[in-house]
Amino acid sequence: EAGVTQSPTHLIKTRGQQATLRCSPISGHTSVYWYQQALGLGLQFLLWYDEGEERNRGNFPPRFSGRQFPNYSSELNVNALELEDSALYLCASTLPERGGPDTQYFGPGTRLTVL
Amino acid sequence: DQQVKQNSPSLSVQEGRISILNCDYTNSMFDYFLWYKKYPAEGPTFLISISSIKDKNEDGRFTVFLNKSAKHLSLHIVPSQPGDSAVYFCAARRYGNKLVFGAGTILRVKS
After folding, report:
1. Fewer CB atoms < 10 Å away: N or C end of chain B?
2. Is the predicted pLDDT of residue B84 greater than 90, yes or no?
3. Smallest Cα–Cα separation from A6: which of A26, A21, A20, A28?
4. Strand ranges (DSSP E) for chain B?
5. Which of residues 46-65 of B touch A (CB under 8 A)?
6. Quick check: B45 and A106 in contact, CB under 8 A?
7. Half-sphere exposure in the Cβ direction for A73 (13 Å, CA)
8. Taking the C-alpha atoms of A74, A79, A82 and A83 in order, what is their torsion angle to the nearest 10 degrees?
9. B97 touches chain A (CB under 8 A)
10. Residues of A in contact with B101 (CB under 8 A)
11. What's the average pLDDT block by block, 10 residues per block, for chain A (115 residues)?
């Protein structure tokens, strides 16, 4: 069974540009989460999508946005890029179930570098 | 609001010995706790979880202990191996809500 996939692996942009990151969840999973991991820091929660709806949002500015498509894949868009947006962006998927831990399975990440 | 705390930024252990990683939480409504392991520049890998109605769960070299009265859980790795060197994240979940992660603990296993 294929795991969570993310593209691109690396992305280099300049300040002010826009970045689009993509995520394909494990087959059958309906929830997708996005996290940011800046160098030396923990996992910062960005966005949570389930069944096409945004369920929750972390403490990030509105220039971070995303969506989930009918096939449950997801996109993260970052507008007006700033130097501090340079980080590893991780996507995770899960199948929410009452009585279970909703284990999130992570993709390999997209390394975004803003110059 | 740090609901999940990993107070030790790093831990160093000799190969073959036990590694104990600790995690504290504040929200008594959490019903599941999970541990993840992360290598640099990779996504975290799920290790083990425990339901709040249990006090221990074991999977091979990994055992998680939960002390609800103290709102504390720990991950034991026995025996520790050099390949276990990674960042370990504790996470907690309340049904219907997002997973809450701790800041992580860097484990170094020396050979």
Report:
1. N
2. yes
3. A21
4. 4-5, 10-14, 19-25, 32-38, 45-51, 56-59, 62-67, 72-77, 86-93, 100-101, 105-110
5. 46, 49, 51
6. yes
7. 10
8. 40
9. yes
10. 42-43, 45
11. 92 98 96 90 91 94 97 97 96 84 92 97
Number of A–B residue contacts, CB under 8 Å: 54
Residue A97 corresponds to which amino acid?
E
Q: What is the pLDDT of residue A95?
A: 86
Q: What is the pLDDT of residue B87?
A: 96
Whether B43 has a pLDDT exceeding 80, the answer reads yes
Matching residue, tokens 């009585």? A99
Query: 3-state class of A12 per DSSP?
Result: strand
Nearest Cβ partner of B46 from A96, A103, A108?
A103
